[in-house]
Amino acid sequence: MNELAPTPDLPEGANAQDYLRMYRQMVRIRAFEDSANQLYLDARMPGLTHMYSGEEAVAVGICEALERTDKITSTHRGHGHCVAKGAEFKPMFCELLGKVEGYCRGKGGSMHIADQSNGNLGANAIVGGSMGIATGSALRAKLQGADDVTVCFFGDGATAQGLLYEVMNMAALWSLPVIYACENNGYSEYTKTEEIAAGSILARAEAFGIEAHQVDGQDVLAVNTLARDLVARARKGEGPFFIELMTYRYHGHHVGDINRLYYRSKEEEATWKETRDPITLFGAWLTREGVASEEDLQGIESAVRAEAAEAVSYALDAAYPDVSEVTMHVYAGEG
Amino acid sequence: MMREITLSQAVNEAIAEEMRRDETVFLIGEDVAEAGTPFKVLSGLVEEFGTDRVIDTPIAEPGFMGMAVGAAMTGARPIVDLMFGDFLYLVMDQLCNQAAKTHYMSGGKLKVPLVLRTNLGATRRSAAQHSQSLQALVAHIPGLKVAMPSSAYEAKGLMKAAIRDDNPVVIFEDKLMYQDKAPVPEEEYLIPLGQAKILREGRDVTLIGTSSMRQVCEGAAERLAGEGIEAEVIDPRSIVPLDEGALLASALKTSRVIVVDEGHQSFGVTAEIAARINEKAFYHLDAPVLRFGAMDVPVPFSPVLEDLTVPTVDAVADAARKLVAGELIHAA
Ligand SMILES: Cc1ncc(C[n+]2csc(CCOP(=O)(O)OP(=O)(O)O)c2C)c(N)n1
Ligand SMILES: [Mg+2]
């Protein structure tokens, strides 16, 4: 088992509470995804969904460096971002099940979940579709003299979209407070990243004069330390920045992608789960550093699992939208 | 006497007034600042509002369109300048998948108050990629509003209403009309989207014309008047929302309708309006609703060919005559 290196200089202001919240948030994402996967397997969830399991340290490491007023844009694999930015389980499960108490009244579903109360501008079913939105949010912040930062999450596959290069160009020209967070999980659907990305991903950002970093996306402290630094600097007008987070998704591309031997091996999956799991690694660090005991961590785990189970049964019993809602919210200001 | 200004000045005034009134309004697009756009519509704005609010971009339509969506979602009111309507194809994802759907998909929580101002219109000898009238393309997408000013007066009032609207609004200006003058009051006014205007009353036939096709309809009406045929001319002013009530009322009154729009005729604005009139006024009609759109060909460069592709006063007047004479009634 690889271990997280002890972090000699702990982030300023960080304390046991912060570490435990980070741990808890990662566990919450894992628990949310396990429940969502089970809802799919039990044929109780309409449609498909994309699991974030394995990538928890990316969303949590970054979102724990953000204020509530900071913004994020998310992807089709967006539950992790949503939880990490502060969303609650009940309205999330309700959304996944198309219930009226969902964050989007059941009209968005898994791939469009948005939680503007916490600055989540929404998941996006168009790969790369939110790059303009994130950069525009940063432009608005700059124009209005607001000090919020926007983080744009996207996958390695999305780096093939031209929009990224259009908006990075403008973000760099205008020093916008945006951080491009590329979650490199090694795959774009059923294709390995090296087959779809020529050259170096970091070098693409650097070509625009954007400071770019690669970080171990399984190491929540490394992610968080880097993110705190970049967020603080972006707030001061030193943005944009680019981060490539090396990570791995445990499940298939979506919950229905079960037989995946044709594109990746069981051994590869097992190696990541056994030696690079972000929650296990951080848990080991917490106990080793004396921040928490095994029992503390187990307590967090069982409390979170109970919360998830309760939210799932709440959502299963919750009401669907009234049929009159079908024509509601096509236009703002018209009910 | 009310002063007369050009359509270009009217758009400029509308934007300037709204930018003075609301500091969250900003302009973004290619060569909008010092250059004031290739059509010079925005000249002078950067001098008043500075480069923070009149923002020149690189040539990256999807990029700045997407950024406008993000800025609008988070509290600004961007006006996107798309140099030619033909470039709509480049921004379709950001406009139709993102801007148009965000309010609905978020269950009403997020709003995208932005204006996309662009243009339409052939016969500038600009060939197939700088001459299209693509209003039907965006009118098809729920969540977008679409306005089509037919004079300087409409251009100003509709632009001001669009900027204050909480939804994404696409405004098509006819690039041949930028220098056309019309009376425009000094006092402030807005034209709400979804209110058609009867430009001329008549009892024999209704001519519905969008944007510069209003001039075609008015020209035809003038000619018909000399022959004793009274044509009613109506400008819908916005096609989404569409003032169906006003169009139907006129159809009931005259029993004969011709719809004229410069988009390609097939699957377009004229088809939609004709279908609605057929559905809701069928038993009041004396003849089928006729349509004139651009020919279903890419716009050709050669002037002799290009002029054939757009609706004309001659064609509309001729059709109206036949309608009124009962020559187009096919029923046995
Ligand atoms: C524009 C577009 N093209 C294709 C798809 C289908 N699609 C959905 S997810 C995906 C792969 C995305 O890979 P990546 O960006 O690496 O994200 P990951 O799924 O690995 O998190 C594809 C091709 C899409 N949704 N949008
Ligand atoms: Mg990927």
From TrEMBL, chain A:
<keyword id="KW-0786">Thiamine pyrophosphate</keyword>
<dbReference type="InterPro" id="IPR050642">
    <property type="entry name" value="PDH_E1_Alpha_Subunit"/>
</dbReference>
<feature type="domain" description="Dehydrogenase E1 component">
    <location>
        <begin position="24"/>
        <end position="322"/>
    </location>
</feature>
<protein>
    <submittedName>
        <fullName>Pyruvate dehydrogenase E1 component alpha subunit</fullName>
    </submittedName>
</protein>
<dbReference type="InterPro" id="IPR001017">
    <property type="entry name" value="DH_E1"/>
</dbReference>
<keyword id="KW-0560">Oxidoreductase</keyword>
<dbReference type="GO" id="GO:0004739">
    <property type="term" value="F:pyruvate dehydrogenase (acetyl-transferring) activity"/>
</dbReference>
<dbReference type="Pfam" id="PF00676">
    <property type="entry name" value="E1_dh"/>
</dbReference>
<dbReference type="InterPro" id="IPR029061">
    <property type="entry name" value="THDP-binding"/>
</dbReference>
<comment type="function">
    <text>The pyruvate dehydrogenase complex catalyzes the overall conversion of pyruvate to acetyl-CoA and CO(2). It contains multiple copies of three enzymatic components: pyruvate dehydrogenase (E1), dihydrolipoamide acetyltransferase (E2) and lipoamide dehydrogenase (E3).</text>
</comment>
<keyword id="KW-0670">Pyruvate</keyword>
<dbReference type="GO" id="GO:0006086">
    <property type="term" value="P:pyruvate decarboxylation to acetyl-CoA"/>
</dbReference>
